[in-house]
Amino acid sequence: MNNGKMENTYWNGKGKYQKQYEILEKLIPKEKRSKYENIELLRCISNVYYDYYNNGFCNYDILQEELGFLAKYGFHISKNTTPKELENIMNAIIERILGKLIIGD
Asked: What whole-number distance in Å separates Cα of residue 36 and Cα of residue 50?
């Protein structure tokens, strides 16, 4: 799936919000869903992102729960999603979380 080479990705540790992501990632439960909506979004995109880069979306069909949750919030990912689109979705979710932290609910 990784059709386009990108250098500034979370996969290679150089995402737009890499430091913030690494802090937020620690809030993701290891073996279950998060009870917090925005952390659940981050859990879902992290799982999808990992499969995209690590497995070339081989587990796309298994990720339907995560993909459905992301779509519920307007983050649509398909087998044709490009690396740039995936980065933009990751950035948007992190921005959403950071915005909530700064301005509150």
From this structure: 21
Following DSSP, what letter does each residue of 15-78 receive, concatenated? Answer: -TTHHHHHHHHTTS-SSS--SSHHHHHHHHHHHHHHHHHHHTTTTGGGGHHHHHHHHHTT----
List, in order, residues 6 or more apart from 38 with CB less than 8 Å away. 93, 96, 97, 100
Q: Over the stretch 28-49, which tens digit does the pLDDT of each residue have?
A: 998 889 999 999 999 999 999 9
Please indicate, yes or no, whether the overall pTM of this predicted structure exceeds 0.85.
yes
Burial class (CB in 10 A: 0-12, 13-18, 19+), 31: exposed
